[in-house]
Fold this protein.
Amino acid sequence: LTALVSLNVSSSRVTNAGLQHLKMLTNLRSLSLESCKVAPNEIKKLQLSALPNL
């Protein structure tokens, strides 16, 4: 899964805590989180800390 470049988890039960599990996806360039309970600042933190290409 570490080679994954696109992930769509829209309308799923992903939360702020669940985002932490995406840190290993270092090649991720596209992430769709529509209708998920994720705060925008948590997405930004994930991007800055582990996924700069997102």
Summary: The chain has one domain: 6-49. Helices lie at 16-19, 40-49.
